[in-house]
UniProtKB/TrEMBL annotation:
InterPro entries: UCP026631, YdbS-like_PH. PANTHER family: UPF0699 TRANSMEMBRANE PROTEIN YDBS, UPF0699 TRANSMEMBRANE PROTEIN YDBT. The keyword Transmembrane applies. The keyword Magnesium does not apply. This is PH domain-containing protein. The lineage of its organism: Bacteria, Bacillati, Bacillota, Bacilli, Bacillales. Residues 62-141, 254-329, 395-473 form the YdbS-like PH domain. The chain crosses the membrane at residues 44-63, 176-197, 223-246, 354-372. It comes from Geobacillus thermodenitrificans. Keywords: Membrane, Transmembrane, Transmembrane helix. It holds the Pfam family bPH_2.
Amino acid sequence: MMTKRRLHPVAMVTGVGRELKNVLLPLLVVVVAGSGGDFSWRDLVVPLLVLAYTIVAGILSWVRFTYGWDDQTLQVEEGVFVRKKRTIPFERIQGISITEGIWQRLAGVVKVHIETAGNVPGEAEVTLAAVSREEVRRLQRDIEQAKEQAEESNPWNDQEKRLLSPPLFTLSVKEVWLAAVTSGGAFGVVAAVWAFLSQLGDLIPYEALFRNVQATWNGHGRWYIGIIGLVALLAAYGVAIVQNMIRFASFAVRKQEDTIVITRGWLERKTVSVPIGRVQGVMIHESWLRRLFGYATVSLIHAGGALDGGPPGDVVLCPLVKKERVSSIVHACLPEYDLDVTFHPLPERAKIRYMLRPLYWLMVPVLLAAYIERPWGAGLLLVLPLAAWIGVRRYRAAGWALSSRQLTLRSGWFRQTTTYMLKRRLQSIEVSATWWQKRKRLATISAAVMPLGTSARVVDVDGQDAAAVYRWLQAERKDET
């Protein structure tokens, strides 16, 4: 017998608050623009009606939203004017992530995102905005029991016992701070502020501000403007550091039978469950700054949506970890993957191509800038040998490795990425060669896994090696046990 349940009232409060936040700024612009400088109380009639409608619609949405489940299915009904009913079999559910915002934590509830095999990547099939922790545990237990019965596997272990499993990886306070400092994100903050200010074009006299800035620039205020820009960038960097520290606080990774459970967050506590069977590959990211301190970032290629707020198919397993610990952590979570591989370097004849590649698009603008700003612009010519040196570093970093059941590709230097892919997870391997590569007997290897668009590649591999990798995938795939 399926009992219909309603979300906690905090879901109504957060839902109404979210909608009010979305309409508040447009309504403010309408009031200011419509008054024309001669404000009247009649100018508030339409905005007040919109606010009242938003509040009433939010309350009705909460009242009309119900959910429930039995031994095999989850059922959700929603819609104010048009009722929509969805029934989801438990075996289709591929992942559950749990978020605890400030309001949810105050009310003692959580926000649940349920992902299924057929939903659009990056979007949850069902979102339960405010559910008690006990109900989430019961739902997870019933889902797992249904899957175990379908697969005739071992009976379900007690959920509370599983939650007590020791973490395989945690971040200390120092590592949280270092991860936040080296994550960047300042330009993302600047872009967000710029997008917000662009919505206020009717309220802020940008043309007059631009003329004032231009007059100051043409005068003696270049250093003054430069200092203001630097301070603004540093402030944005500080905001990004605080955001990342809040995001990575209390980070922990646990393995619970066939599921990897990742918890993180301070103001918004989040729990992400990644079924091991849905992991398509492992990626190791090393930015040049983190590489100086011997750290790296580990992420999983997940055949599904954006479970952790990142791009679809990408779940961060370790935001910051010492490189010597990466192999043991990944092996504890995913024993099939072998990270201790020996890479084949690129042939010597590929070095000149890596040196010249950045110069193709730098040569003309640098020479023009050096000529226009002569004689001091001649210093810009130093960019060209620096770019060639970076090309050499990228050449030395690139490589590939092959075993009976795994392909590994590595590329990049500023952000070096190493991708480990099991043979049975590969969707395709493409070997291509341009006219210039054919002259040097070189080729490009591209390997793709699920989800669509997730791939890794290495440029200017020896042509015979690329052909060997291609034949390796075409060969009969033997049982990998």
